[in-house]
TrEMBL record:
Protein name: 18S rRNA (pseudouridine-N1)-methyltransferase
Function of the molecule: S-adenosyl-L-methionine-dependent pseudouridine N(1)-methyltransferase that methylates a pseudouridine in 18S rRNA. Involved the biosynthesis of the hypermodified N1-methyl-N3-(3-amino-3-carboxypropyl) pseudouridine (m1acp3-Psi) conserved in eukaryotic 18S rRNA. Also has an essential role in 40S ribosomal subunit biogenesis independent on its methyltransferase activity, facilitating the incorporation of ribosomal protein S19 during the formation of pre-ribosomes.
Organism: Aphis glycines (Soybean aphid)
Pfam families on file: EMG1 (PF03587)
Keywords: Methyltransferase, Nucleus, Ribosome biogenesis, RNA-binding, rRNA processing, rRNA-binding, S-adenosyl-L-methionine, Transferase
Cellular compartment(s): Nucleus, Nucleolus
InterPro entries cross-referenced by the UniProt entry: Alpha/beta_knot_MTases, Rbsml_bgen_MeTrfase_EMG1/NEP1, tRNA_m1G_MTases_N
A Gene Ontology molecular function term of the record: rRNA binding
Highest rank taxon of the organism: Eukaryota
Family that this chain belongs to: Belongs to the class IV-like SAM-binding methyltransferase superfamily. RNA methyltransferase NEP1 family.
Keyword Transferase: yes
Length: 331
């Protein structure tokens, strides 16, 4: 057998990231962003197809009597970069759809890693628009796929649909539109200028006194939802970080305790294993239910008091000083 081909950076760019989480239930609360009137269109140049953009195809636009400002695929790229890098998406509370001017509806997997450069993004869009789906490099999971219209068939039942437009009568803070336990859809225009063509919108609001770009609109909406759902968006990350820190200290603590039990000659070596298993179970329970390292030390000391006073005082003097807490915070 020959050697396995090493993947290039362009191939790994479209691989699934392990940090994002999938949305499991349609009725769960989440933010749905629909990039409406996205200007994603392919054009044949020579023997290949390219994503139509004003930087490389200005002569084609002029030849067909089209305005350069009406062809801005980079706006969709900017919006996707902001949306998929947000903590809201990493927490599994974001779903994104794209509806192009040519009435093509695209669904994007929340775990998709959006290409950083516009050149790679353009190549990805050409593949999507011609093959109707893009799969991950290592798995068969679809990162992007073209789905059937209308968009309302893919939204949860009873989902509120809000369009954003500067022409709305009175500006509203995005935080005032955040529901507590229900999904909501925001429609953002992915074009340089003009009105959103979305007949399915139930309400049109303005989120600023000034005109905003599509990417900034997505930023303000996501920030409002992250602040309102902070207990879900940020709590999981901190809780996981605390578990990792405590787990890193676990092996060192168990090693000191084993030296106490064996070398102090108060207990047979055979008893070390059952005490070690008991302490490991306590560590796991602390990692699940507590975020405090002091609570961790306190319960370990109480356990050692049942073993013997010598081991308890030895452990307390060894691990209670602030340098251990400082070490944990640095990790």
């Amino acid at each position: 057998m020959g050697k396995k081909r090493r993947r290039t950076d362009e191939e790994t760019e479209f691989d699934l990231t392990r940090k994002a989480k999938e949305v499991k239930d349609d009725n769960e609360k989440r933010l749905i962003v629909i990039l409406e009137n996205a200007q994603l269109e392919t054009v044949k140049v020579g023997k290949s197809f390219e994503l139509l953009n004003p930087d490389e195809h200005a002569h084609i636009l002029r030849k067909n009597g089209r305005e350069i400002g009406n062809c801005r695929p980079d706006i969709s790229h900017q919006c996707l970069l902001m949306l998929f890098d947000s903590p809201l998406n990493r927490a599994g509370l974001l779903q994104v759809y794209i509806h192009t001017e040519n009435n093509v509806l695209i669904e994007i997997n929340p775990q998709t890693r959006i290409p950083r450069t516009f050149k790679r993004f353009a190549g990805l869009m050409v593949q999507l628009l011609h093959k109707f789906s893009v799969r991950a490099a290592e798995t068969s999971a679809k990162l992007m796929k073209v789905i059937k219209n209308p968009i309302t068939d893919h939204l949860p039942a009873g989902c509120r649909k809000v369009a954003t437009s500067f022409s709305a009568e009175k500006p509203i803070k995005p935080s005032e539109l955040v529901p507590q336990d229900a999904p909501i859809a925001f429609i953002v225009g992915a074009m340089a200028h003009g009105q959103i063509k979305a007949d399915y919108a139930e309400q049109t609001v303005a989120i600023s006194n000034y005109p905003l770009s599509a990417a900034l609109t997505c930023t303000k909406i996501c920030s409002a939802f992250e602040d309102s759902w902070a207990s879900i968006v940020f709590h999981k990350k901190n809780h996981s970080h605390t578990r990792i820190c405590v787990f890193n200290q676990c092996s060192e603590i168990i090693g000191y305790i084993s030296s106490i039990l064996i070398y102090e000659s108060h207990y047979p070596v055979q008893l070390y294993w059952q005490y070690s298993i008991k302490l490991k179970l306590i560590v796991l329970s602390i990692m699940v239910y507590h975020n405090s390292y002091r609570m961790f030390c306190k319960i370990i000391v109480q356990t050692l008091q049942q073993i013997g006073s010598i081991g308890s005082s030895y452990f307390y003097n060894k691990f209670h000083p602030p340098n251990i807490n400082h070490k944990l915070n640095e990790s």
